[in-house]
Amino acid sequence: MVRTPRILLATFLLAFSVASQGLPVAAWADGSTTDFLVLEGSSSWVTTPDRVKTGVAAPRVAPGDSDFFGITYGEFATLGAASVLIEAFLEGDEPARYRVRVDDVNSGRAGKDAFIFNVDLTPGWNIVKVPLKDTKSGDGRAMDFATAVRKIQISKRKEQGDVALTCDGVRLEGATAAARGAFTKALTEEKDGAKRARFLRENLALLSEQDRVSVILDVLKSDRHPRARRAARESLSTCGTDESAAAVAHSIKGTVLPDRPELVAGLGSMPSRSARLKAEQIAADPKADSTERTAAISGLTCLAVTPSKTVQDSVKSVGGWQPKAALVRALLTAGLDRGADGLIALLDGETSTRILSDCSEALAFLGGTDLGTDAAAWKRWWDANRDKRGPRKPATTRYGVGRFYGISIPPGKIAFVIDTSGSMREPVVGGPAAKWIAEAPHLKGKAIKSRLDLAIEELTHALATLSRASTVGVIAYSEAAQWVSKGFEPLDPALRDKLMSKVRALNAARKTNIFDGLWLAFHPNKKLAQADSVDGPDTIFLLSDGNPSVGKIEDIQELRDEVLAWNLGRSIKIHCVNVGDADARLLKALASSSGGTYLDLKSDRATPPDEEQKK
Fold first, then answer.
1. Per-residue model confidence as pLDDT tens digits over 122-154
2. Which residue has the higher pLDDT, 400 or 208?
């Protein structure tokens, strides 16, 4: 069974017919998974026009190792529709009988607590009609699909001779869109940003697509709340008409930072060929700003098709590590069969250490073997293994010389963002941190009493082992953030000694301002500037022992979404180390969304931290 990541859900379009307009339902990427689309059996995505009714790709399932195979669509609004129509393509030459199961929002798991019927499919395209009114469960209970369905599943018990099934073009029959006026009034009157975000996620699907796009663009132009902006941006992946693509493309004109990358990424995420073409034109334009090209590829990564050969060739030839890093993520998301050739081509002749390590790690993860950064070796391996099928266990790699808490550091432009709040004075009294101190060879004989002592030893060890080809910046944050280094500086022996001396002099005091620490790393000019993408880092190591307690943004979900927006056009890899005992959802989300590593080296708390006593 494959529970499809949100990063792939925009690859198909649930085109609900509302007033002759599509009302699609899909979702975007935050590194998590969702039950919205579950593919069971041997699953894949098809992109050929004869199999795709809407959007740019459709899910395909075939018999696999399990007894059943099929497609399950998760919860979505029904808008009072009379039925759901699903277009299904059956391969082969013989008809087949499938079971359709529909659960309402109050249903349990038992088969009798659902509306179930059989449908006979013939080879080629079929329309599966799922009634939403006057239906009953197996035990005679009336089912309620007036506002939403919990799931619709089309499945079959595996039998000899079974073939693959592709489903696409899901639409509602007889649905009614909500009035935009009442929607806008309710959204405007809600002053809490988090509640606005929730309102958008829960209710945007009730509008016609034309109204939905208009509301989304209004939010992205006027609402500065990170969660509301993210909800709006990701909802563009539910808008698939040519008119919607044209409206978003037009809105990009004249827009500047920080809004422009979000709009470009949103355009790339839209499940229509028109939007995809416009986003690929931006991504392939050698005259376009690197941030813009990167954001376009970040949006295209939400689709289950690889960026075109034109985009890949342009990104490779024009240079700039940010678009290349975004392309690596897109090819990694596409999988081995569709991504290997592009990754190998990108690796060939590359000089950026960040891209060399990214490509090698992606190939090792997908291919289950580690051939380093040798493009020729990878090509020989791929030529010999191209036609082999079956799961491959990801290989682990450790490129780079330096180590920070055991995480390898390839040469590049590195920012270390270190927590020096009062709680970092807490002693290391157990947990994974104490075990790490006892087992790490470079810590033998070191006098480590507090979390800060450990952080200092790890940071000085990283500086001592880093390649001289690196450029390094060190930021310490507590109540505010400040540079320990003089911005980003090329690492030579003199600077190494100077930074190690400054790091050993760090003290812990006051509260935790993670926002300022990350802002300074992302914006080395201390203000929002176009040059940030050039002057800033390619990798950030963020260390914290707690969640924010002061700063412009303290809410961890708001801070997460703000940083994700910053990174749309930057492709900075964020490695996060938790050395405290607090909820680490923020650190986990930042690492997973950027392709970084999350490391849990928490220690047991002996006493409440000073900053909490003061608070």
1. 999 999 999 999 999 888 888 989 888 989 999
2. 208
d(CA 587, CA 574): 9
Nearest to 39, CA basis, from 26, 58, 16: 58
Report the pLDDT value the prediction gives residue 33, as an integer from 0 to 100.
Answer: 31
CA-CA distance, 250 to 148, in Å (whole number)?
33
Strands (E) located in 442-517: 471-477, 481-483, 489-490
- pTM of the predicted model, to two decimals? 0.86
How many other C-beta atoms are found inside a 10 Å radius of the C-beta of residue 153?
20
How far is Cα 484 from Cα 510, in angstroms, rounded to an integer? 17
Provide the pLDDT confidence category of residue 392 given band limits of 50, 70 and 90. Answer: confident
The vertex-47 CA angle with 43 and 50, nearest 5°, equals: 110
Tell me what pLDDT residue 396 has.
Answer: 73
Q: How far is CA 204 from CA 25, 200, 299, 303, in A?
A: 10, 5, 20, 21
Residue 260 CB burial class (10 angstroms; 0-12, 13-18, ≥19)? buried
22 and 209 Cβ atoms separated by less than 8 Å: yes
> DSSP states of 204-255 as a string?
GGGS-HHHHHHHHHHHHHH---HHHHHHHHHHGGG--SHHHHHHHHHHHTT-
| Confidence check: pLDDT of 359 > 50 | yes
- Report phi then psi at 362, rounded to 5: -65, -45
Question: Measuring CA to CA, which residue among 262, 325, 316, 317 is closest to residue 292?
Answer: 262
Dihedral sign (CA 70, 71, 72, 78): negative
187-199 confidence digits (pLDDT tens)? 999 999 999 999 9
Percentage of the residues of the chain whose pLDDT score is greater than 70: 90
Q: Return all residues near 380 (Cβ < 8 A) that are at least 6 apart.
A: none
* Whether the Cβ atoms of residue 375 and residue 491 lie closer than 8 Å to each other: no
Structural domains in the chain plus CATH codes: 2-173 (2.60.120.260), 402-614 (3.40.50.410)
C-alpha to C-alpha distance for 203 and 83, rounded to whole angstroms: 20
Please count the residues of the chain.
Answer: 615
- The pLDDT score that the predictor gives to residue 35 is 46
Q: Among the listed ranges 320-329, 371-380, 427-436, which one has the minimum average pLDDT value?
A: 427-436
| Residue in 388, 312, 308 with CA at minimum distance from that of residue 343 | 312
Omega of the bond leading into 258 within 30 degrees of 0 (cis): yes
